[in-house]
Amino acid sequence: MFTGIVEELGEIAAIEPLRDAARMSVRGAIVTADAAHGDSIAVNGVCLTVVGVDGAVFTADVMKETLDRSCLGALRPGSPVNLERAVRADQRLGGHIVQGHVDGTGVLLSREPGAHWEVVRISLPAGLDRYVVEKGSIAVDGVSLTVVDTGGDAFSVSLIPTTLGLTTLGAKRPGDPVNLEVDVIAKHVEKLVGAYARGGRA
To answer: Which of 19, 46, 64, 137 has its CA 20 to 30 A from that of 101?
Structure first.
């Protein structure tokens, strides 16, 4: 589990295409400081399992399902990525509950600069709009954000200077894809309420 509070802006060191997957090497001095085989690290919001560590670079295998559902397949060596280690039970939950299981991808539609922040509008894939509510939480490329407003097939978020400077979202431009993970609690509530309304069990 993650919190959506990015620890480090790393970069892709290498990508080795496999028949139905890819082996990805990611550089990040902070997240590799105590990394070991089997640990979980979120890369742009995607939970990956560490299979090797070499100095400040960790390696992870990315299966086809993950490549198909997320934007990881579009990354290249040198691409910047948001990195976060799995949260420990004794840590503060600074953002919100993030699983690292991407629900789909959106496209950055527009940026509106402000004096101290930027309002960014992002498209929503079909079927995810029901989980996104005003003032609710959403993870965009692994960054925990609060929804400013939503309108069917898109939503907007406000990015403070820290987010703009320390994550990939500061450099994203209109047309760029982003990974989206909606609030898992909303999905569980939907299933439970739906089962109750049908008079059955979840």
So the answer is: 19
Which residues are paired to 21 by β-bridges? Answer: 63
- The boundaries of every CATH 2.40.30.20 domain in the chain are 8-85, 104-190
pLDDT tens sequence across 122-162: 999 988 999 999 999 999 999 999 999 998 799 999 999 99
Is there a contact between 58 and 41 (Cβ–Cβ < 8 Å)?
A: yes
Fold of the domain spanning 104-190: Elongation Factor Tu (Ef-tu); domain 3 (2.40.30)
Q: Residues of 127-136 as b/e, b for ≥16 C-beta within 10 angstroms?
A: ebbebbbeeb
Sign of CA dihedral 85, 90, 93, 94: negative
State the amino acid at position 154 in one-letter form.
A
Top CATH class of 8-85 equals mainly beta
Q: Which of 130, 139, 159 is nearest to 95 (CA)?
A: 139
Alpha-carbon dihedral angle through residues 89, 90, 95, 98, given to the nearest 10 degrees: -10
Q: How many other C-beta atoms lie within 10 A of the C-beta of residue 189?
A: 12
Tokens of 82: 């948001």
Tell me how far apart the terminal alpha carbons of the chain are, to the nearest angstrom: 23
Q: What is the pLDDT of residues 51-88, one digit of tens each?
A: 999 999 999 999 999 999 999 999 999 999 999 999 98
The answer to whether 1 and 93 have CB atoms below 8 angstroms apart is no
